[in-house]
Design goal:
Chain lengths: 625, 216
């Protein structure tokens, strides 16, 4: 494979589908999968073989989802950066098994997925999707890729952002930037629009909802406010239908839906019903129950809209809060850009139009635009262009737990990033050399109602009487929206080290171990990939040689000609039978060496033809004069 | 190549000798200048230290600086440059956040004049506490009776009182550096009163629907 390149790819790592894109002077473009007529969308579905732990990603995994429901992982994005205890609803809904990865330390709670006898953390599963996208890009661009910009929902907290970055690392990608999905969409939308305007990006995806308000103009994309819900999406529309079907099946047949297979079947049915109701006024539903029974029903659009309206109203409340934070009225918004698959639902468009008092903009593909924006940002960071700049905000307030379980806010929500705050701490005991700080994110007043990011332990404080050390701790939220903490003792100037125990995330050691594990898996994948590559190249070389033989073979002496035909047949046979890429390559090179005299003849012959052509043209030209 | 310099803010770029039209960064060669300890938010944005600011100009200046010091500008360069750009951006963002909001700007001017902080002095002018308490009772009563008319007139009167307090702040904010301790204390009391009015007004805005349950 080619050497590492300067190209940075843009990745939309979605709940339902993921995409990869790249950008150059010509603008951003999506990169398709390897198959003929392949889609740009890679279903974010991973099947893990319970015996071999071999992963299959995408459409193939999704196709088997009903048969192999307990080993097929979808919506893993909902689990990123979350603890087992927080996932009660997901544990109920999802057919695969969610377990606790680690509870060794106090207050630490990381979820994992159990397949067979193995446990995979959400970043590891996401890494499998990322690796697939990475190899897609490598195949399309013909170069090794090791850097990426990955998008996340604007409302993702620090733990969820860290988990996304860890996933990149495990997949062998340096995540040069994490950007917010609605901001990425705005970048793609506003790329070719010169005029200054105030826009709202309404991003309603499979599992998350974001609303961001931005000012566009002079090449700057400035976020004024963002709001949303990381646990609200099209999945929840499906869930409403599933609940309806489940309760009616129970009523009619006295059957409880407990098997993972039927759960998965109902989910597929719900997805299809939702899609059909987007275009038609009603949808017919049919599913076999046991041996003899069949559940049948027609779902009317009105009925469906009645069910999902409360969910959409939650997004509308977020819109109002975002407008308020931005200190704007709906009438000051020039355009509402609709992003994410769930904006295809007619009622969503209607209610959004009402709140912003305008017709929402739906002319861009709502599923493509985020990846395209990520690619534009990737191109900016690769040094490709300097005329564009994103200025984003932090979605949640950052604070520390104070005495009595309250939260002391350090950085409010919707502040431009990078941003920082410094707080001074001291010791309570003589000679104390460590101080623990519990860091939180959220808008609620009590620490227990906010998200705990982890405990930051300041170490190496010079021993002094209690209350004397003054330790300035700087909390810096960087351009990725990720928290960095540093500490310095005022008097001694000594820099204290900061040890982080993430509440719902992986430690650096764990990420490193998973990266190494993944490289081992990847080696097996690589051999398979490499074999396909070599076989394809061999095929290409053979076809080229055969064409030359047909055209110019007669110029060789008959013996050499026969030898070459024989060698070509042998190589074709060998490449077909062998599964050793190195051996095939050796044979291919040997064969190519044999074809050199033929190639030379071919070049000479074609030059002669060219000269004859040129000669003829000159004649024509001279006739004209 | 952009370089890294550590000294007080110069008027000309030490690297390319171009006049610095905006502080902290040279528009020509992108040399970054770390902020001197003594610089305040006004210095940072190259604006006069006063209450009356042209909002448009403030935003334009902010954008011009933010554009040139954002870490994206220094992507792929040495880590120190990236880190310096991040820190400078954080400081400029904070300066903008404080100065663009008139109440925060007034608070900051009082701080620069060594006036009492909100923690130092929690007092409010005259009978404000009693007045707020009364307003709150009226509000509850009107809300219980769904008396829209009274609610509207109550809100208007609170808004008027807030505007009045704010006008007083605006009048005095430019002269804080010359003010004596009593005047600074009075200024602090006015600022505190704004908080009471804002919290009352926020109470009005919160109808049951928008109160909702903030997720997470």
């Amino acid at each position: 494979m080619a050497k590492a390149s300067d190209t940075i790819i843009g990745i939309d790592l979605g709940t339902t589908n993921s995409l990869v894109a790249c950008a150059d002077e010509a603008g951003p473009r999506l990169l398709p999968g390897p198959d003929d007529g392949a889609d740009f969308l890679l279903p974010s579905v991973v099947h893990i073989d319970p015996m071999s732990s071999q992963a299959t990603v995408g459409a193939q995994a999704r196709a088997q989802a009903i048969e192999k429901s307990t080993d097929t992982i979808y919506s893993v994005k909902r689990l990123m950066g979350r603890g087992f205890d927080e996932l009660a609803i997901e544990r109920e809904r999802l057919p695969y098994k969610i377990v606790s990865f680690s509870k060794s330390e106090e207050n630490r709670d990381v979820a994992a997925i159990e397949v067979g006898s193995n446990r995979f953390t959400p970043p590891e599963v996401s890494a499998m999707i990322l690796r697939e996208l990475k190899s897609r890009a490598e195949a399309q661009l013909g170069q090794r890729i090791d850097r990426a910009v990955i998008t996340v929902p604007a409302q993702f907290d620090d733990a969820q952002r860290q988990a996304t970055r860890d996933a990149g690392k495990i997949a062998g990608l340096e995540v040069v930037r994490i950007i917010n999905e609605p901001t990425a969409a705005a970048l793609a939308y506003g790329l070719d629009r010169g005029e200054r305007s105030m826009i709202a990006v309404y991003d309603f995806g499979g599992g998350t909802f974001d609303i961001s308000i931005l000012r566009l103009g002079d090449g700057m994309f400035e976020v004024y406010a963002t709001n949303g819900d990381t646990h609200l999406g099209g999945d929840d529309f499906d869930q409403k239908l599933i609940e309806l079907f489940t309760s009616e099946i129970h009523e009619q047949f006295g059957v409880d839906i407990s098997s993972a297979k039927i759960k998965q079947q109902l989910r597929t049915l719900a997805e299809n019903t939702k899609q059909r109701l987007g275009e038609h006024d009603q949808a017919h539903v049919e599913i076999a129950i046991g041996e003899d029974d069949q559940y049948k029903r027609t779902v009317k659009r009105d009925e469906f809209e009645e069910m999902i309206k409360p969910l959409i109203e939650r997004t509308i409340e977020s819109c109002s809060r975002a407008l308020k934070s931005a200190e704007l009225n709906p009438s000051q918004i020039d355009q509402v850009v609709m992003v994410g698959g769930s904006t295809r639902v007619p009622l969503v468009r209607k209610l959004v139009g009402e709140v912003f008092q305008c017709k929402p903009y739906t002319a861009i593909n709502p599923e493509h635009v985020v990846a395209l924006g990520a690619a534009v940002q990737a191109n900016i960071l690769a040094g490709g262009r300097h005329d564009l700049l994103l200025l984003d905000v932090t979605p949640l307030s950052l604070g520390i737990e104070t005495l009595g379980g309250a939260i002391g806010k350090l950085i409010p929500a919707n502040v431009r990033i990078p941003c920082q705050a410094t707080e001074t701490f001291t010791t309570f005991q003589d000679g104390q050399t460590k101080v623990k700080i519990s860091v939180l994110q959220g808008e609620r007043e009590l620490a227990k109602d906010c998200r705990s990011l982890g405990v930051f332990e300041l170490q190496g404080i010079p021993p002094m009487p209690a209350g004397i050390p003054k330790i300035d701790v700087t909390f810096l939220i960087d351009q990725n929206g990720v928290l960095n903490v540093s500490a310095k003792e005022q008097r001694s100037g000594q820099v204290a080290s900061v040890q982080i125990i993430p509440s719902h995330g992986l430690t650096q050691d764990e990420v490193l171990r998973m990266t190494n594990d993944a490289v081992t898996y990847a080696h097996e994948d690589m051999t398979a990939h490499h074999l396909i590559d070599v076989k394809t190249t061999t095929e290409f070389d053979l076809n080229k040689a055969n064409k030359m033989l047909e055209k110019f073979g007669s110029l060789l002496n008959p013996q050499t000609q026969a030898q070459l035909i024989r060698a070509a047949a042998d190589l074709r046979e060998f490449a077909k039978e062998s599964d050793d890429p190195v051996a095939i390559n050796q044979q291919r090179e040997k064969f190519n060496h044999m074809t050199i005299p033929l190639a030379e003849l071919a070049v000479a012959a074609s030059l002669q033809i060219d000269q004859e052509d040129a000669h003829k043209q000159t004649e024509v030209a001279s006739d004209e004069t | 190549m952009p370089g890294l310099r550590t000294m007080t803010l110069p008027s000309k770029c030490l690297n390319c000798d171009v006049e610095l039209s905006i502080p902290i960064v040279c528009g020509g060669c992108h040399t970054l200048y770390p902020i001197p300890q003594t610089a305040n938010y006004f210095d940072l944005l190259g604006l006069p230290q006063q209450f009356d600011l042209d909002g448009e100009k403030l935003s334009d200046t902010y954008r011009a600086i933010a554009r040139n010091i954002h870490p994206d500008r220094f992507a792929g360069q040495a880590t120190e440059m990236d880190l310096l750009a991040t820190k400078l951006s954080a400081q400029v963002n904070e300066a903008w956040r404080v100065l663009k909001d008139p109440v925060r700007r007034a608070e900051y001017l009082l701080e620069l004049a060594n006036g009492p902080s909100a923690a130092d002095c929690r007092e409010v002018p005259g009978d404000l506490l009693a007045r707020v308490m009364m307003l709150r009772e009226d509000l509850e009563e009107a809300r219980d009776q769904s008396d829209e008319q009274t609610l509207t007139s109550l809100r208007c009167s609170i808004q008027d009182e807030r505007d009045h307090a704010f006008d007083n702040i605006a009048k005095r904010a430019n002269d804080l550096s010359l003010a004596n301790d009593t005047e600074k204390k009075a200024f602090r009391q006015l600022l505190n009163s704004i908080k009471y009015f804002d919290s009352l007004l926020a109470d009005f805005a919160s109808d049951p629907l928008s109160q909702g349950n903030p997720q997470q």
